[in-house]
Amino acid sequence: MKGVDTIARIRREFFTRGRAIKDIVRDLHVSRNTVRKVIRSGATAFAYEREVQPLPKLGPWRDDLDRMLTTNAGRSARERLRLIRIYEALRGLGYEGGYDAVRRYAKTWKRERASLTAQAFVPLSFAPGEAYQFDWSHEIVLIGGTTVTVKVAHVRLCHSRMLFVRAYPRESQEMEFDAHDRAFAFFRGTCQRGIYDNMKTAVETIFVGRERAYNRRFLQMCSHYLVDPVACTPASGWEKGQVEN
User: Fold this and answer.
1) Range of the domain at 229
2) Which of 103, 129, 165, 223 is the most buried (most CB within 10 A)?
3) Tens of pLDDT along 70-101?
4) Does 135 lie in the same domain as 113?
5) Are residues 110 and 135 in the same domain?
6) Can you name the residues that pair with 47 across neighbouring β-strands?
7) Phi, psi angles (nearest 5°) of residue 49
8) Same domain, 190 and 159
């Protein structure tokens, strides 16, 4: 079953960009039935529980395979071994699995290694409806004669710089979702992208570049509103300077 990130991309491609199903199938490498199911159901996630969890034979040998792949990548092109030779060397250590498992793992390893040098940026000029910026601030207010600290959600349109703010007692995920719902109702629409910092209610893991492992419920919210989330570089507040100001 496809993850919430793939479901979100399918929804954006179809509802926002108006692309045909066959084009989505070709670009995202998913089946027509999957695309139709996402579009017709309106769901942002599908639950699937595996009855039997397989135990891959490659698991105990991943450290050895990582070491071999890293060593091989550091060699010159002339001295570099073919993957079948690495597989044979792993078999010599006691690995009893097949070549396909090694090939799939090596492909994923190479893609993750390439992402370490990926460059990304956030543009400073925006088209109408292209993006908004979201952030929290802490404000001290007087309520009933008592000084309290409230958390204020800020949503700012990047093109028009129109601002929406709403105060909450905490920065919980439910209040974050409520702020989005009320902001989009106030703006009478959404944008194509949302620019965020790496708050825990949205981002679970930070990788190199723009790659993030987003929170599942946060991705479902973005999928519902057809918004593509973009996370800033840590400690780089200027990347969403409008809402920071």
Assistant:
1) 131-244
2) 223
3) 888 888 878 888 999 999 998 888 888 888 88
4) no
5) no
6) none
7) -120, 125
8) yes
